[in-house]
Amino acid sequence: MLALGVLAHASTTFLITVPAYLIPLLHVTQGVPLAQAGMLAAAPSVGICFTLVLWGAFADRFGERVAIAACTGACVLVALLAAWVTGFVWLALVLGLSGAAAGGTNSASGRLVVGWFPRERRGLAMGIRQMSQPLGVAVAALVVPGLAGTSGIPAPFLLVAAVLGALTLACALLIRDAPRAPRAVPLEDGDLAPPASAAEAPGAPGTAPPPPGAAAGATDDVSGNPYRRSSFLLRIHAVSVLLTVPQYTLATFGLVFLIADQGWSGADAGIAVASAQLVGAVGRVVIGGISDRVGSRTTVIRAVAVLCVVGMLLIGSAGFLGVAVLTLVALVFATLISTADNGLEFTAIAEAAGPGWSGKALGIQNTGQFLMAAAVGPSMGALITVVGYPLAFALVALTPAASLFLVPRRDDVAA
User: Fold this and answer.
1) Which residues pair with 192 in a beta bridge?
2) Fold of the domain built from segment(s) 2-179+226-403
3) Burial letters for 356-393: b for 16+ Cβ neighbours within 10 Å, e otherwise?
4) Is 243 helix (H, G, I), strand (E, B) or coil?
5) Taking the mean position of all CA atoms in its chain, how far away is CA 116?
6) Mean pLDDT by 10 residues, the chain (415 residues)
């Protein structure tokens, strides 16, 4: 099930990443202004912002299997539509729909990890699950520029539609929803009653055990809003939004930076970006395992933010110097660090929110990230046009630096 979650999320990531890797074709070959091409790349991020919380609530209500299968099925239809439409405006609108359709794999696959893995293994498991985003980006970097250049813009959308169609069937048949603790019943005085009978209580003879990793006596409480308990969730949301800037800057403009600014060939640039993303995917697993060993998500998030500042300054400096080997090393390091934090934040959010709120909280988490991602495309495109790639990359180091002031001192675990 974890593998299916990874494949489903990687495939929907491929779909919404396609426009970012059409930028070299549009900007370098067809002369489309960089800011305008960045708007096209941002369209899926805009669309996904409208549905992430809805998809999270849908997963909370109907379970992970239905949510993931519905998401991938909807993405098949949108991918086919994207292959059919013509014109910049219509393609941008359909790409917005692709983001709206793709949001289901974000929250639902995260719920699978939290539901099926105990806390001491969640960091590693969520790191594996979070490999899906850089894997999808890496495959897009390798496939989209060449395929679109030789077979036209519709070709990448037709390819991902076929893959998503197969995954829709596999997810519908093979995914099992994570077990849930019994739901607490609100009393008239506002307290929560235990399950209706002793036979229904967690751990009672003849009943299923509580979900792996759930705290003793935990309940699937949808009425206990975790946002009212403390500022922890809001602070993690804010940190992740700030750390999204370097990640999406490199994902959107890394390829065209190597081609247009550093003079690399399209094939070499694609291999470099894909390699960086694959290293980033492995890095998410390693970082997740480290957080399990350390026993604190927030401590590792703070360390990642510091290294992210270093990474963006390094790639900015490499861009100024124009040395190919240094540029490659800087790109790999900056990509690794800028993508490393997502699994940590997802795990921290799900643990703090509890089983009754994890889908919605993860939806809110992703909404903030994709709102920032939507702003990164056009704003960074305009900034790069004015100051150039190296200085723009160096300035991005300000956002992870700012996040250091918001990282909570300790974890908040409700489940």
Assistant:
1) 186
2) Growth Hormone; Chain: A; (1.20.1250)
3) bbbbbbbbbbbbbbbbbbbbbbbbbbebbeeeebbebb
4) helix
5) 20
6) 81 90 79 79 86 81 85 94 87 91 74 66 72 85 88 91 94 78 49 44 42 41 72 93 93 89 88 89 85 88 95 95 93 91 83 79 83 87 92 96 93 71
- pLDDT for the residue numbered 108: 62
Instruction: State the residue for tokens 């500042």.
Output: 309
Rounded CA separation 346/373 (Å): 17
Chain segment 192-209, per-residue pLDDT in tens: 444 444 334 444 444 444
- pLDDT given for residue 181 in this prediction: 55
At 12, list the tokens: 């929907």
Q: What phi and psi, each to the nearest 5 degrees, are found at residue 291?
A: -65, -35
Cβ atoms < 10 Å from Cβ of 401? 16
pLDDT recorded at residue 190: 46
138-143 long-range CB contacts below 8 Å, 24 or more apart? 138/273, 138/274, 138/275, 138/277, 138/278, 138/281, 139/10, 139/14, 139/274, 140/13, 140/14, 140/17, 140/18, 140/20, 140/21, 141/21, 141/255, 141/270, 141/273, 141/274, 141/277, 142/270, 142/271, 142/274
pTM, 2 dp: 0.68
Cβ proximity of 110 and 362 under 8 Å: yes
Q: Name which of 245, 238, 239, 241 is nearest 377 in CA terms.
A: 245
Residue 189 CB contacts under 8 Å (≥ 6 apart), including other chains = none
Can you give the residue ranges of every domain in the chain?
Answer: 2-179+226-403
Q: Is the dihedral of CA 326, 330, 333, 335 positive or negative?
A: negative
Instruction: Count CA within 13 A, CB hemisphere, residue 288.
Output: 27
pLDDT, position 244: 92
Backbone angles phi, psi at 259, to 5 degrees: -80, -55
* Contacts of 166 by beta carbon, 8 Å cutoff, 6+ apart: none
